[in-house]
Amino acid sequence: MTLMLLDSASLWYRAYYGMPDTLQAPDGTPVNAIRGYLDMTARLVSIYKPNRLVACLDGDWRPMWRVELFPEYKANRLEEDGDEEEEPDTLTPQIPILLDLLDLFGIPVVGVDDFEADDVMATYAEIEKGPIRIVTGDRDLFQMVDDKRDIKVVYLAKGISQHDLVDLKYVSEKYQIPGERYALFAMFRGDPSDGLPGVRGIGEKGAALIANNFANVDDALAGAHANHEALTPALAKKIIAGSDYLKIAPTVVQVARNVPLPKTDLSMPQSPADLSAIYQFKERYGLGASVDRLISALGW
Question: Where is each 5'-3' exonuclease domain found (predicted)?
Fold first, then answer.
């Protein structure tokens, strides 16, 4: 009973930049992100054969409860006037069309106000039975990997055809840390893409050393104050100097696992008696074989 969680924005951005912008509907509307999203979803469903599926969205890409703790959170993605960084002009009109099509297919779409898609996926992973496959191009969800509960990340950084299936061994080998301590490692290392600096002066090697010797932030701080043998004086000094950041880092960096999710049937959509509405949509927007591939992958 595999549950597949789709990081929808991650997929449609990847599709938008990976598919030619010459793909257009008969009326000239760009559809490259839509077609790429459908193609990727069809491929993933065919590979992992989930019994449950949900497309997850940002209710808020920059939640205030994170910003209040750390004002610089994702501030690197803001325009100079403080507004949200705009999506590409030819991507924006595709998103409502895609969401309408997912609705026609009966694929549940879930976003919750004041939470990011990562939080939505993490909460589903926390409360639903495994196996669970989290599809994303974002490393943040590595913190959810759990071999006992069979929670893995389908990591799309290299694309669908060369994607990685991330388990604890993958995390451990890639970062040279205990696989279950990715969040701790990320707190110290930081994440420039989210505007998170980490602890000043501590890079990947220092963060890995800390994650190998301490289970959490409090342990690392205690070790630094106690001149723990694993820490050089310089590294201990940096940890102590970062105390203020480390007070808020766990809440900002760790995904929320308690999002108030709506009651939603996550079962794979069943074939409608009549596919004409989907076929009409396909013709209207020139979606060609991409719609057919998803129909086939769903076994309709």
Answer: 1-269
> Is 284 found in the same domain as 170?
yes
Per-residue pLDDT at 82: 54
- For the beta sheet containing 151-155, the strands, ordered from the edge strand earlier in sequence to the opposite edge, are 109-110, 52-56, 3-7, 132-136, 151-155, 164-166
The structure tokens 């940002």 sit at: 58
**Based on the domain organization, do 172 and 73 belong to the same domain?**
yes
Q: What is the CATH number of the domain that holds 141?
A: 3.40.50.1010
In DSSP terms, which residues pair with 78 in a beta bridge?
A: 84
Q: DSSP assignment, residue 267?
A: B
Measured at the alpha carbon of residue 59, what is the angle toward residues 32 and 110, in degrees to the nearest 5? 70
Q: Are residues 192 and 69 in the same domain?
A: no
Identify the CA nearest to 246 among candidates 212, 203, 196, 205. 196
Residue 99 CA to residue 156 CA, distance in Å, equals 21
* pLDDT tier at 83, thresholds 50, 70, 90: low
Amino acid at the residue 240 = I
- CATH, residue 220: 1.10.150.20
Q: Is the domain of 57 the same as that of 128?
A: yes
Pull the structure tokens for residue 58: 């940002």
Radius of gyration for the chain, computed over Cα atoms and rounded to the nearest angstrom: 21
Distance of alpha carbon 220 from alpha carbon 106, whole angstroms = 47
Angle subtended by helix axes 182-189 and 204-213, to nearest 10:
140
Domain of 214 in residue numbering reads as 179-253
* CB count in 10 Å sphere of residue 142: 23
Co-location of 185 and 168 in the same domain:
no
Tokens of 81: 């006037």
Identify the band that residue 38 occupies on the pLDDT scale cut at 50, 70 and 90. very high
Grouping H, G, I as helix, E, B as strand and the rest as coil, residue 107 is coil
